[in-house]
Amino acid sequence: MSYKSETPFDSIEGSHQYVTLLSEAIEEARREVDEEIALAIAGPERRREALQIVAYNLAKLSLHIKTSGRILNDLRTLRRLLQSEREPAAPRARAATHG
User: Fold this and answer.
1) What is the CB neighbour count within 10 angstroms for residue 46?
2) pTM of the shown model
3) 51 occurs within a structural domain
4) Cβ–Cβ under 8 Å, residues 27 and 61
5) What are the tens digits of pLDDT across the range 69-86?
6) Cβ atoms of residues 76 and 17 within 8 Å
7) Domain tally for the chain?
8) 3-state secondary structure (DSSP) of residue 88
9) Quick one: angle between helices 45-86 and 12-39, nearest 10?
10) What does the pLDDT look like over 19-28, one tens digit per residue?
11) Which pLDDT score is estimated for 35?
């Protein structure tokens, strides 16, 4: 019986894919805010300052999401390593003697 995931977070791979998409959306938002900041130079100072705070928070969020992506990647790698250690030694031993 195979398990079907119901949410993107049911597997490390799904979570990694979601974090990657989120990272792309954050980068797009950062570009848009940077454009708004450039246009706001002639406008009210309060708006420009608010946009700069938005840009700062998006930069922090981007850093956290990229870190999360790296952690998920590490978890995938470690899971693969642990799964390969659980495989029976006999098939590996036979492959080594035949090759």
Assistant:
1) 9
2) 0.73
3) yes
4) no
5) 999 999 999 999 998 988
6) no
7) 1
8) coil
9) 160
10) 999 999 999 9
11) 96
Determine the Cα–Cα distance for residues 49 and 81; give it in Å rounded to an integer: 48
Tokens of 57: 């928070």
What are the respective helix, strand and coil percentages of the chain, to the nearest 5?
85, 0, 15
Q: DSSP state, 8?
A: T
What lies within 8 Å, CB to CB, of 40 at 6+ separation is 47, 48, 51
Terminal Cα-to-Cα distance of the chain (whole angstroms): 35
What does DSSP assign to residue 9? T
Q: What is the dihedral of CA 25, 30, 35, 39, to 10 degrees?
A: 120
Question: Is residue 7 situated within a structural domain?
Answer: no
In a domain, 70, yes or no: yes
User: What phi and psi, each to the nearest 5 degrees, are found at residue 17?
Assistant: -65, -45
Q: Tokens 């930069």 appear where?
A: 59
